[in-house]
Write a structure and sequence with these properties.
Layout (H helix, E strand, L loop, with lengths): L1 H10 L4 E2 L1 H11 L3 H10 L3 E2 L11 H8 L2 E5 L3 H13 L3 E5 L24 H12 L4 E5 L8 H5 L4 E4 L4 H14 L3 E7 L2 E7 L5 H6 L9 H4 L4 H19 L8 E6 L4 E6 L3
Parallel strand pairs: 1-2, 3-4, 3-6, 4-5, 6-7
Antiparallel strand pairs: 7-8, 8-9, 9-10
Helix pairs in contact: 1-2, 2-3, 3-4, 5-6, 5-11
């Protein structure tokens, strides 16, 4: 491993390791580009793809992100953006869970949805996309419907879970499983011009307080629909929350809910009394 480290240091441009050298090292040493990335980060080298992160995130931060696992439940409007942004951020292991295939009505807002992808499993298209944009990231696709019966298995090993669901019943089941496994949960939901974001840590009951009285379990998005811009905004806020939680930085939205009104461009934060 010392020889590999010295090889990478010799190929670096300053403290940046170009992608071509990362890929060549993987081929030469019979390793994955992800394994090379970890060795480079341990050596204080920053893969060049992350150089625009460096004023915000240190090389040590990138190593911590690379060693993290995030599970995303839902790969549609919110989930597609969440997966892509986490992959570009450099989170090393992503578990993507969704039972559905792409349909024509997904084309207006879902990042992974294309004409060519119609009829294709969402997790399959999502996995292929991650492989194109950051091959160092390990993406584990599960074409399965999350429920409390399979939840512990699907969330096993996660440092953070991301709620990218579209119904209240499953969302509450997710919150319950995260509580049982002591996994922080980042929640996002969207409807029309509006959205909301919250983070729930072990021991908190924010989502149960917000949604506990929703009798039919159907989200308001079924009535208001979703344009292209709302999931992009809310998913980005969710990814920022995930990044803060993984790095232990900043102030996550805990014991509260951030409400987004894009029609009037208003952002409001409300405390949630659990």
């Amino acid at each position: 491993m010392g020889d590999l480290r010295e090889h990478l240091l010799s190929k670096a441009q300053g403290d940046l390791l170009p992608w071509a050298e990362q890929r060549a090292a993987a081929e030469t040493h019979g390793m994955s580009v992800g394994e090379i990335e970890e060795v480079a980060l341990e050596a204080g080298l920053l893969p060049a793809r992350y150089q625009r992160n460096r004023k915000t995130l240190s090389t040590a931060d990138q190593l911590k992100l690379f060693r993290s696992t995030v599970t995303i439940i839902g790969c549609g409007g919110l989930g597609g953006y969440v997966v892509e942004e986490l992959a570009r951020l450099g989170v090393g292991r992503l578990k993507a869970i969704d039972p559905d295939i792409f349909e024509e009505h997904n084309l207006n807002r879902q990042l992974m949805s294309t004409i060519a992808a119609l009829g294709r499993p969402k997790v399959e298209a999502t996995s292929a996309r991650v492989a194109q944009i950051n091959p160092a990231v390990q993406i584990l696709p599960f074409q399965d419907r999350f429920c409390k019966e399979n939840g512990k298995s699907l969330l096993s090993g996660a440092d953070v879970a991301v709620d990218a669901l579209d119904n209240v019943t499953t969302r509450l089941e997710l919150a319950g499983v995260c509580a049982d496994l002591c996994i922080p949960l980042v929640h996002g939901s969207i409807a029309g011009w509006y959205g909301q974001v919250a983070s729930q840590f072990p021991g908190e009951t924010t989502l149960q307080t917000i949604y506990g009285r929703c009798a039919d379990g159907v989200g308001v998005e079924k009535h208001l629909g979703n344009p292209s811009f709302t999931p992009a905004v809310v998913a980005s806020l969710e990814v920022a929350e995930v990044c803060k939680i993984l790095l232990g930085r900043g102030t996550p939205i805990t014991g509260a809910m951030l409400v987004i009104n894009l029609l009037d461009m208003e952002f409001s934060k409300f405390k949630i009394k659990c």
